[in-house]
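Our preliminary data section would be incomplete without showing what the modeling component actually yields. Below, a chain of 290 amino acids is followed by its predicted structure, encoded as tokens that our downstream tools consume directly.
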Amino acid sequence: MIGSSIIDETLRKHGIPEWVKPYIISYARSNPVRAVKYASSFIATGRRKGMITKNEIKLPNGHVFRKGDIMRMLYLFYYGEERISKMSEKWATESPKIDREYAKHFREVSGVESRHARAIKNVIEGFGKGSWKPSKEFVEVFDFVEGLKDCHERLIAKRIVFWYSYRVSFGVVFYRVFYPVAPELLRSVGKIFKGENAQELLGDNEVKEIIKSGKISKDRLRWLARQILARIYNSIQAEMPLARKAKVEKEAQLLCDISLASPLHVLNEMDAGLDVEEELKEIKRLAAQL
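Predicted structure:
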């Protein structure tokens, strides 16, 4: 396949899992070599640093974004972390029937998530002033998850679906793309997108146990993933006009596809037994009906 060796090398260089390759090939179908080199240029910066002006942010590869658009993305990260923190706090205290270990976990990660939100807010203030509102589609994702009643479903939703859809797919890329431009601002949020807290790792291990022991049925797990990811898909599509205006629509759509597939692959590593491609079709079908 034309450009396949370049794609393989890009995956190895940046530590990207093999399952991502079909999505990159689809993205690069018109001109594999050029497209992959262009996409990788956003994070393969070398010693180049980029530039921030009053109204624009110029990346090391020369691509220019409006500062307001980047600050909106940061605000969405901030809104998400703040909602997740409040969600965890609520789940830790709302019911006397909640498992004590789960209550402890949610209470401790709430503090971590609150610190994450403050760090992102500091970055926003460092870039400048402004006010943004999340789309109704973005808000609906968090409203749906907050309404979950089962502790097992809550943990899976937060630790696997949220983490691998938003933080890993979009957060890590955002951090790697913009860090060379503003390292003094983004250094404080590096741990949010790259690192993992001990309590969060405990959450991963607990999710594995929940799935392997059958504490949540395969049908219910499939339903949960579909419901959340359909809403996440709509929340990403709501931001596509911004990506189109910034001339990175194809790259944003690639990240969207990866953000839907990523948690499904992680769940399969935990023996969920999902047909990823079939699930993606069902997720997009459901998203159109919401």
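Residues 100-127 form the longest helix (28 residues). The chain is about 70% helix and 5% strand. Preliminary results of this kind motivate Aim 1 of the renewal.
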